[in-house]
């Protein structure tokens, strides 16, 4: 992992800090770009089916040499890019509870989802001018049974084997318990992701090893305290997800996670964040090798 320093000082370990949901709204884009510009993130993942992506892509290109820019595969928010009469008959993607239920039954519409995965990858490339450095998923859909295999098929067909990495949203139960934050959610996702990293490795795709960042998205919670727990018991290639941004009308209409995004952003931009990393002897790092800056 290449290292990006935050706050100076000596570091003995590194983590990847990824802002999810880029392109969800203009306010989210503005916040993520601000955090990238301040050197307070080492990755962000993009919702390529959102209307803020085309404009946001131009702003992201200047950070391609210093941060991982990935696809946030989205099958649960907004409108799909493809025609999905079974999966999204109303023209809007279903809630995660419905997707989970169908995945458990093995009843997801294969061709519709395969086509949507391909369209979102196409949309990423069209506006960014390069393939993603990695793929993760909104509400962790990339780890779900059936979806994980269709995603791996598509990435392999595009000759991306060994060139990009995938987010494993799971961690060891002992590590999760040591952190003590959102235990039910973190343990549930770990159970759903069972076998994901092995399946990815068998197809030639690396994954992170260690994952944290689960939040209850409570605007009254102490995000600085929560973030300190995310640093506990890190894996060898530890990844922390976060959700910074500014609240705007489009965000309010699209997603229930609103005010906490500004609290996260304020913390990431604060001296307290740099001090926390310094005390923990941690630096931010990207998981991919540096690549040349993408032309505007």
The structural domain count equals 1
Low-pLDDT runs: 2-11
Report the count of strand segments: 10
**Global mean pLDDT:** 93
Shape: globular
Q: Count up the helices.
A: 12
Radius of gyration: 18 Å
Distance between the termini: 26 Å
Which percent band covers the strand fraction?
Answer: 5-15%
- The helix-strand sequence is EEHEHEHHEHEHHHEEHEHHHE
Category by helix and strand content: alpha/beta
Structure description:
With 296 residues, this protein is an alpha/beta fold. It has one domain: Glycoside hydrolase/deacetylase (TIM Barrel, Alpha-Beta Barrel), CATH 3.20.20.370. It has helices at residues 26-37, 53-60, 96-105, 110-128, 147-157, 173-179, 183-192, 196-202, 223-230, 249-254, 259-268, 271-279; strands at 2-4, 13-22, 43-46, 68-73, 134-137, 165-166, 206-207, 211-212, 239-242, 282-286. Strands 1, 2, 3, 4, 5, 6, 7, 8, 9 and 10 form a ten-stranded mixed sheet that branches. Helix 1 (26-37) runs parallel beside helix 11 (259-268) and helix 6 runs antiparallel to helix 7. The longest helix has 19 residues, at 110-128. The protein is globular. The model is unreliable at 2-11 (pLDDT under 50). One of its GO terms (molecular function) is metal ion binding.
């Amino acid at each position: 992992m290449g290292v990006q320093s935050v706050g100076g000082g000596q570091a003995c370990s590194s983590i990847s800090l990824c802002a999810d949901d880029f392109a969800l709204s203009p306010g989210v884009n503005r916040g993520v770009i601000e955090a990238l510009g301040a050197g307070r993130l080492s990755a962000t993942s993009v919702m390529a089916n959102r209307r803020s992506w085309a404009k946001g892509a131009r702003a992201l290109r200047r950070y391609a040499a210093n941060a991982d820019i990935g696809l946030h595969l989205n099958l649960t928010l907004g409108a799909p890019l493809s025609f999905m009469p079974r999966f999204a008959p109303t023209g809007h993607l279903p809630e995660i509870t419905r997707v989970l239920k169908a995945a458990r039954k093995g009843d997801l519409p294969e061709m519709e989802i395969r086509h949507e995965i391909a369209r979102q990858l196409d949309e990423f490339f069209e506006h960014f001018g390069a393939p993603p450095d990695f793929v993760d998923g909104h509400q962790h859909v990339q780890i779900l049974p059936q979806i994980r295999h269709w995603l791996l098929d598509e990435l392999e067909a595009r000759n991306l084997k060994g060139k990009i990495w995938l987010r494993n949203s799971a961690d060891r139960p002992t590590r999760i318990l040591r952190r003590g934050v959102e235990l039910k959610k973190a343990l549930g996702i770990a159970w759903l992701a069972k076998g994901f990293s092995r399946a990815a490795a068998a197809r030639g795709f690396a994954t992170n090893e260690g994952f944290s960042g689960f939040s209850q998205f409570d605007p009254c919670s102490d995000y600085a305290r929560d973030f300190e727990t995310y640093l506990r018991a890190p894996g060898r290639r530890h990844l922390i997800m976060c959700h910074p941004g500014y609240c705007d009308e489009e965000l309010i209409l699209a997603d229930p996670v609103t005010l906490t995004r500004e609290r996260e952003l304020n913390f990431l931009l604060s001296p307290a964040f740099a001090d926390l990393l310094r005390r923990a002897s941690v630096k931010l790092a990207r998981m991919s090798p540096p690549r040349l800056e993408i032309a505007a």
